[in-house]
Amino acid sequence: MSGFVEQLFKMSLTAAIVIVVVLLIRFLMRKFPKKYLYLLWIPVWFRLICPVSFESKFGIFNLTHAAGKAAQVHD
Questions:
Q1: Half-sphere exposure of 62 (CA within 13 A, CB side)
Q2: Which of 26, 40, 47, 50 is most deeply packed, by most CB within 10 A?
Q3: What pLDDT shows up at residue 72?
């Protein structure tokens, strides 16, 4: 059961990060047509609805994990 809760937490955290990124992009794209601004929400919708996650060696969580390891090595 804790695996389910951990996976749910990771998915929620990922969705929150995607939402913040979309809001920042929307702020920068204020002059663009509305249809492009609405299309920005598709990744958020996908992240919240679809329970599938893709593994990649590139990503936000991998960068923070690598930074944490680098900080431990230098301490």
A1: 6
A2: 47
A3: 54
pLDDT digits over 10-65, tens only? 888 888 888 898 899 989 888 888 888 888 888 888 877 876 766 666 665 565 55
Residues in Cβ contact with 20 at an 8 Å cutoff, skipping those fewer than 6 apart: none
Q: What is the DSSP letter of 32?
A: S
Nearest by Cα to 60 from 14, 10, 29, 20: 14
3-state secondary structure of 1: coil
**Tally of CB atoms within 10 A around 53:** 11
Joined tokens for residue 72? 């431990």
